[in-house]
Amino acid sequence: MIGRAQELIPAPSPVTGRVRLISANWKMNHNHLEAIAAMEKLYHLLRPEQFRYAELSIHPPFVDLRSLQLLFESDRMPFVLGAQNCHQEVSGAYTGEVSAPMLSKLGVGYVIVGHSERRRLFGESAELVAQKAVAVLAAGMVPIVCVGETLEEREAGATAAVIEAQLECVVAAVPLEALPKLVVAYEPVWAIGSGQAASPADASEAAAIVRGVVAKRGGEEASSKVRVQYGGSVSAGNAGMFMAAGGVDGLLVGTASLEPEGYAQLVRDA
Ligand code: 13P
User: Is 115 an active-site residue?
Assistant: First the structure.
């Protein structure tokens, strides 16, 4: 059990000056009761040093957010609440959608935008992803912008071009002063849920491409502040390797984040 939440502020990495960010993307898993049980378990398995090492954001389905907000507040759990998506408009006749201000009202800090599953299964374009990133920032939260190539694109040698095209749209759309706040998750599509992670060298290369795109609009100062995560078959076995990769500031974890014992192990090993 951890003591006082206010003592558990993550310190920036002494090497990069950036605060590490390890994020659990639950996708469409865990109802609100399962979410509460999972978080109670995870919290008891973690030690203060894990909360000082990195920000730990949890991205449950929308319907779990209120329950987890209350749990984190009442038990002073220093997790950061996250969402997996939002609509680009503030309000209106958009049946079934959830807006960024609604999420920020629930205490959400980070919103994933442009996950490859959203791009592929729900037809989200780079332009739409950019609008969502702008909406998230306007509501006072931080977007985690996902980028990454498919296997075909990789085999065609188009990895850099794909990352650049996906990110340039976002970088061009957000206010200049917001650029340093961006979090970009490099998630190669072929590595997601496949058990076949990219290499730490791939992740470092992608991080350099990401910072190159940011530098073109915002300069070196902004690009040195942007945080880059790696995602795609992250496990307790490889988390440390990715965290040690040059330019990588965090992880975006899917499957391995669902089960508290395994996820606590992953966070400890990161
Ligand atoms: P897996 O960790 O299951 O490969 O999923 C990665 C992911 O898509 C996180 O957003």
Answer: yes
